[in-house]
Amino acid sequence: MSTTEIRQALPTGTWHLDPVHSSLGFELTYMGGVFRGQFREVEATLEDAQLTGSAQVASVDVKDENLAAHLQSPEFFDVERYPELRFASTDVEGGEELTIRGEITIKGVTHPVELTGRATEPLTDAYGRERFGLTLETKLDRTAFGLNWNLPLPSGEPALSNEVTLVAELFFVKEA
Amino acid sequence: MKVLALSGSLRRDSYNTKLLHAAARLLPDGAELELWDRLKEVPPYDEDDDVEPAPAAVAALRAAIAGADALLVATPEYNSSIPGQLKNTLDWVSRPLAKNPLRGKPVAVVGASAGAFGAVWSQAELRKVLAAMGGRVIEGGVSVGHAPTRFEGDHLVDTELREQLAEVVGALVSEAAAREASRVAA
């Protein structure tokens, strides 16, 4: 019998997202550089150590409103038909280094996904509430979700990579 | 249910305009087609002129698209691509992109040409442009090649082409109906 203390992968109890400080970002290669954007409206709940979350496509945040409109169009996320991205975990393992498996739904298509990251130890914030931070990351092939837009460069290379990195920086506050 | 129809050809006896008249007769019950015939009045796009109030024909087309449930465009093919005045007109409609009236609107593309291929490349390019504008572009089109032999008056006499056209307009109207239903539900 091992005497090693097994650290709980994620804290128990019910935790709600602090939406102001949390973010869900995406990054991908565009014409050789890294292009980043985020969704401003993100929700997530941690309950019994399982994570569920969603992001509003209409809240996609990039530096140009016409680009935001393009990202919301049927060529990309198709906000009118699929207003939300969703995630639900099925399995959480690890201690300081976490692996969260689950299903992600983008543009109405659901695929299994593995998120990796770290959770901080819960602390008591300035208002007396318990909170902790959770950083998660995964890579997806956007074309698996029907986000197929591209533009060939003069070299014949596509302008936009198919691989997208999603980065979630989440803050959870324990339900009182 | 209103389908706005736009012919990319200005010619009086245009085969593409005839194709739209043929489409009107193939619409499902409850749908009507309105032909927008002011393409020639649209001035060349100039950002300096893209201010309020917009040129009259541009304002009229923006309003017509906003008021329609779907858009059907028939295009000829000039030098393997979209005729300039049609592209110019769509450029007017598209700006500013984030507010253009085609966003999310179901749109279908068909085409006719005197040559063998029936504007197939022009249709492909037009689909790309309409998708870039944010339209919900219906897959599939109709390519009326050898157009002078395919019409009697504005009737499309080729049965197979008529069936293809009926399929495209049917898909367009279904898409518009689905969109309307989801809006009512929301």
Could you characterize what this model shows?
- The complex is a heterodimer of chains A (176) and B (186).
- Chain A is mainly beta.
- Chain A has one domain: Lipid/polyisoprenoid-binding, YceI-like (Lipocalin, Beta Barrel).
- In chain A, 5% of the residues lie in helices and 54% in strands.
- Chain A has one helix and twelve strands; from the N terminus they run ββββββαββββββ.
- Chain A has one helix at 65-72, and strands spanning 14-17, 23-30, 33-39, 42-47, 50-56, 60-61, 84-94, 97-106, 109-119, 123-124, 130-141, 160-174.
- Chain A has an eight-stranded antiparallel β-barrel with strand order 1-4-5-7-8-9-11-12.
- Chain A starts with 13 loop residues before the first strand and ends with a strand.
- Chain B is an alpha/beta fold and 186 residues long.
- Chain B has a single domain, classed as Flavodoxin domain (Rossmann fold), CATH 3.40.50.
- The longest helix of chain B is centred in the last third of the chain and has 27 residues, at 159-185.
- At the A-B interface, helix 1 of A face strand 5 of B.
Which short descriptors sum up this protein?
heterodimer, A: 176 residues, Lipocalin, eight-stranded antiparallel barrel, 54% strand, disordered N terminus, B: 186 residues, alpha/beta, Rossmann fold, six-stranded parallel β-sheet, two-stranded antiparallel sheet, 5 helices
Q: Alpha-carbon distance between the termini of chain A?
A: 37 Å
**Considering the protein shown, what is the CATH homologous superfamily of chain A?**
Lipid/polyisoprenoid-binding, YceI-like
CATH architecture label name of chain A = Beta Barrel
- Please outline the major beta sheet of chain A: 8 strands, antiparallel, barrel
Coarse structural class of chain A = mainly beta
Oligomer: heterodimer
Helix content of chain A: under 10%
Low-confidence stretches of chain A: 1-7
Helix content of chain B: 25-40%
Q: Order of strands across the biggest sheet of chain A?
A: 1-4-5-7-8-9-11-12
- Roughly how many Å is the radius of gyration of chain B? 16 Å
Q: What is the CATH topology classification name of chain A? A: Lipocalin
CATH level-1 class of chain B: Alpha Beta
